[in-house]
Amino acid sequence: MITWTVTILSLYLVLILTIGFFSGRGAGKNAESFFVANRHLNWLQESMAVVTTIVSAAALVGTIGLFYADGADMLGYVIGFAFLMPLTYWCIGSRLRRLGRARGYQTQAVFIGDFYQSRYLYWCIALAGIVFAIPYFMTSPVAMGYLLSRYTGIPYPAGVLIFVTVAAVYTLKGGLRAVANTDIFHGALLLIFLLVTVVTLMAHAGGLWHVLDNTPRATVSTSGRGMKLFLSWILYMGFGACVQPDRCFRMFAVRDENNMRKGVMISGAMVAFCAFSYLSIALAVRTFLPNIKNTDTTLATGLQVAAAWLIPWFVMNAWGSGMSNFTAGLLSTANIFVKDIFEPWYVRRHNIPLGPKRDRLIILAARTFIVCIVLITVCVSFYPPVFIWTLMNLWAGSFVQFFPLFMLGFLWRGVTRLGAVLGLTSGIICMALWSFVLKSPLGLVPGINALAVNTVVLVVVSLLIPEKKQLKEQRDAMRKLASPENAIEAAPVPSLATGD
Amino acid sequence: MKLWARAVYGLMLLTMATLPFDPLLNKRRIVYLLTPVCIALGLTALYICTLPDKPRRRDGSGS
Q1: Where would I find the H helices in A307-416?
Q2: Taking CB atoms and an 8 Å cutoff, what residues of chain A touch B50?
């Protein structure tokens, strides 16, 4: 088993490096080619990127554990991803994509800063994108180091170093194009693995009907904590996924409207399939192993009992998901650092003109930043701080607070700058209070309650306090540019094939 | 067509989101079989909703 795991994982890493190297050639020309792949991602690259980032290693381990513990109450997670995520992705993502092509945006902060004409919102989003995202993606090397050590006996520090080195090498070489193409490979393997796992575990558990008829928690709770959990997941996954920076910045990279549409729908279908697989796996494992204490080991323990031959594939897929998440995080934070901080505060202040010299400097800064982050990650992985999970919870709750700024900003003409500023501030304060000081009301997670406060404050302040006409007109102009009626795709990239 | 698609999407979302309040559908086998069917119908309907209203011009001059 150890030999198999090491062999499969080694082959996998070699293939990933090869794909990353070949597909990432020429990506280091400028920031647009490095971070947003010249805005040429197709639907498959887009959808697989979304899937592999959402179906992370943490999801394969922790989320399946939650499904094991809470059963069908976790259907809210499936519904949020299957119904609301594609809707919000389309509403926000397609507009950001159009604006990105028209105005050169490739980070959320620059867009929000321009849209609301607010430096405060710009810095809130830029700093949150770096400060909160870093601990989130740093958990991948830690988890992968432990996983490798447990199943192969390879020492934990060696596992962390292998993971971080492979991920960093192809990200540094090929930027988003390398990451997107390796994501296709990761994603295809992951979907096959989940399908095989569901069928194998269901067969071992005695078949689908036997599992459904004999497992507790196979229906949604009609009251209490279970029902609140169900509803919370719908909102959290539905509204949070599309504004997290490691997913959001890829919207700027999609080629055209048609690829965006297909990518959004297919990613919704694939994420829904993966989430539904978690439920099936959890219910099946519950049938033959009803008393797993550490629910994080649900999938691994279930496989060990029912299909030990799948363990090497589990380790490989967990590594693939972790790598996808980690590389997306590396690129996303480097993108934020370069476009939101380095370029406006160094390049423009030193009057470095547009051209190859400036491109070289920006790419050098991006790569240096990535190397620094990788070094910090290695240090953190060797000595993980106790507050890393608290930071992760803050990360999830903080980013969902940005949702009204995007959604209401695009869809409601009455939104004002003051409303957006006060709404976001109150949302973040409430989330911190309900996370650390007070108990969150109604038994819902702090981020959801804070989102409700944030939205109410934004709407009430926007309705009560009028704003300068000029600001409203600027936002209207951006809405018009972002609207589906405005067909702007052909302009930046003329078609060579048709000569248009 | 789009109106129908919106109605189907809304109905599917409502069916799934109100499962705790629906004793008819909230049954072991029904929940498990209903979920993929609702997701497939909902996503197809959403896809139809997002299709452009009329053919887009390809000369880049806007609509």
Answers
A1: 311-336, 356-382, 388-400, 403-411
A2: 90, 94, 261, 264-265
Stretch B46-57: mean pLDDT: 80
What is the ipTM, given to two decimal places? Answer: 0.87
CA distance B28 to chain A (A): 5
Q: Specify the DSSP class assigned to residue B53.
A: S
Give me the CATH code for the A2-25+39-379 domain, please: 1.20.1730.10
DSSP A195: H
> Which residues in chain A have their CB less than 8 angstroms from residue B26's CB?
219-220, 222
Interface check for B63 against chain A (CB to CB < 8 A): the answer is yes
Q: Which chain B residue has the Cα nearest residue A223? A: B20
Arithmetic mean of pLDDT over chain A: 88
Closest residue to A78, CB basis, from B12, B35, B51: B35
The domain locations on chain A are 2-25+39-379
For chain B, what percent of residues have pLDDT higher than 70?
84
Least confident segment among A85-94, A377-386, A407-416, B38-47: A377-386
* Model-wide pTM > 0.95: no
Q: Are A333 and A373 in contact (CB under 8 A)?
A: yes
Q: What is the pLDDT of residues A311-341, one digit of tens each?
A: 999 999 999 989 998 999 899 999 999 989 9
User: What residue of B is the nearest CA neighbor of A489?
Assistant: B60
Hey, where are the domains in chain B? 2-50
Residue A354 falls in which region: left (phi positive, over 0), alpha (psi -120 to 50) or beta: beta
- What average pLDDT score do residues A15-35 get? 85
Q: B8: which chain A residues are within 8 Å (Cβ-Cβ)?
A: none
Cβ distance of A222 and B63 shorter than 8 Å: no
pLDDT for A185-227, tens place per residue? 999 999 999 999 999 999 999 999 999 998 888 888 888 889 9
For residue A50, the number of C-alpha atoms closer than 13 Å in the C-beta half-sphere is 34
Q: Is B54 on the interface with A (CB under 8 A)?
A: no
Which of B8, B14, B15, B16 would best serve as a mutation to test chain A binding (most A beta carbons within 10 A)? B16
Tell me which residue of A291, A234, A193 sits closest to A79, measured CA to CA: A234
